[in-house]
Design goal:
By secondary structure, the protein is α+β, with helices and mostly antiparallel strands. About 60% of the residues lie in helices and about 10% in strands. The protein has two domains: about 100 residues; about 240 residues, 2-Layer Sandwich (Heat Shock Protein 90). It contains ten helices and seven strands. Helix 5 runs parallel beside helix 10. The longest helix has about 55 residues.
């Protein structure tokens, strides 16, 4: 066997001996600290190199001075390598501990505080991910708080809106009971109107809660938007006449849509009632429908004089009423007299219902100001022509 082969065999034997000891150790330490595993890997490597070097030197230079030199140099190199490995392991441990401490701040009110020291690229990536998660968490908590406070606000408004007509009803009932009502017939009709209004409000609340709970089940059918708008105009006509408002609907494309007719009729009814009640006597409310590529857009334009720019974004909010001091309404407590309009009696739920129903149809509702008024639009997906 040549010298070279002999040396290779000795080196292999020495390295194998170190490997036999080291490999089980590496396996055993898999679930322990990363730093310990790192150090063990370096230790096994150093041991393998040192063992094979010393084995070869022992075979080639037995008892020779050079053997001692090789041994000392190998040992020195090994020691330095182990010190460097220990320092590296410490650094890894320090980085991961700092990140663990920082991870505890995820979701705290102050937000995620990234570790100060330098981190390896993997840990930096993890830190960035934690920071993004923390931001998302804060955002959703903020949303939840806003939702909670708007829910509380809505309950307060609704209670107020219910209490006022109830007080009026009570007063009228007592007047009738005591026989002090000079025109009992008018009181009866006022009571009836108030009860209708309360029924409408409870109806709206129920509809809104179904929408918000995702419990709105649509029974879709293919209808012409022409028929839907026609029905809604017919329904709103008496109110328009009573208010002296012109209701026109002469630009209605007969486009097909696949919708729940009952719900969309409710949407159009809400939009028309709002528009009529916001338009002064002799003003005009115009309904139009046009097809735009894959959408059918129905618009209701009134003569309200425009909505404040900062209010435009809020009109679809649940419970929002324009310029609404939620003050007791004269209607409920005043002596019977003035004509009651359904449109005057909302609790700010009408447009929230509009948006909810339209979005449940995968459409969208919007509003913008036009000359002399505003224009509410609902866009519904057009039905396929061959369907
Ligand atoms: N066509 C419209 N023109 C002007 N303002 C409108 C119109 N429709 C709605 N608004 C404003 O938006 C508010 C919210 O409307 P809505 O949700 O239907 O509630 P409500 O009718 O009970 O007040 C109204 O109080 C009104 O100020
Ligand atoms: Mg309304």
């Amino acid at each position: 066997m040549s010298d070279l082969m002999l040396m290779a065999s000795y080196a292999a034997l020495g390295a194998a001996a170190a490997g036999v000891v080291g490999w089980p150790a590496v396996l055993l330490l898999r679930r322990r600290s990363l730093a310990l595993s790192l150090f063990t890997v370096v230790f096994v490597t150093v041991l393998a190199v040192a063992a094979s070097t010393i084995a070869v030197a022992e075979a080639m230079l037995p008892g020779h001075h050079d053997f001692q030199v090789v041994t000392i140099v190998t040992c020195m190199g090994s020691v330095v390598s182990l010190i460097v490995a220990a320092l590296l392991s410490r650094q890894v441990v320090a980085g991961s501990r700092a990140l663990t401490r920082a991870a505890r701040t995820v979701g705290s009110d102050a937000g995620f505080t990234a570790p100060l020291g330098p981190l390896s690229s993997e840990l930096s990536e993890l830190s960035a991910e934690l920071s993004a998660t923390s931001a998302r968490l804060a955002e959703s908590r903020q949303r939840e708080r806003a939702l909670e406070s708007s829910r509380r606000e809505l309950i307060a408004w609704i209670s107020h809106d219910l209490r006022t007509p109830l007080a009026g009803l009570r007063a009228m009932a007592e007047a009738l009971e005591d026989g002090v009502a000079d025109e009992p017939q008018r009181y009866h009709s006022r009571i009836r109107t108030e009860v209708d209004r309360l029924t409408g409000m409870v109806d709206d609340l129920f509809e809104l809660s179904r929408i918000q709970a995702g419990a709105l089940t649509l029974s879709l059918s293919r209808v012409s938007v022409y028929d839907l708008v026609g029905d809604a105009i017919a329904g709103a006509y008496p109110l328009a006449r009573e208010r002296g408002v012109h209701l026109v609907g002469d630009r209605i494309a007969p486009a097909p849509v696949e919708v729940d007719s009952r719900e969309i009729t409710r949407v159009l009814g809400n939009l028309l009632i709002n528009a009529i009640r916001s338009t002064p006597v002799d003003g005009t409310v115009a309904v139009a429908a046009r097809q735009e590529e894959a959408e059918v857009v129905v618009s209701v334009t009134d003569g309200c004089g425009g909505i404040d720019e900062q209010d435009l974004a809020r009109v679809f909010e649940t419970g929002w009423r324009g310029g609404s001091a939620r003050t007791p309404r004269k209607a409920a407590t005043a002596p019977a007299g003035a004509v009651q309009h359904h449109g005057d009696t909302g609790a700010g739920l009408g447009l929230a219902i509009v948006r909810g129903i339209v979005e449940a149809h995968a459409g969208h509702a919007s509003v913008h100001n036009v000359h002399g008024g505003c224009c509410f639009e609902i866009a519904l997906p057009a039905a396929m022509p061959w369907a």
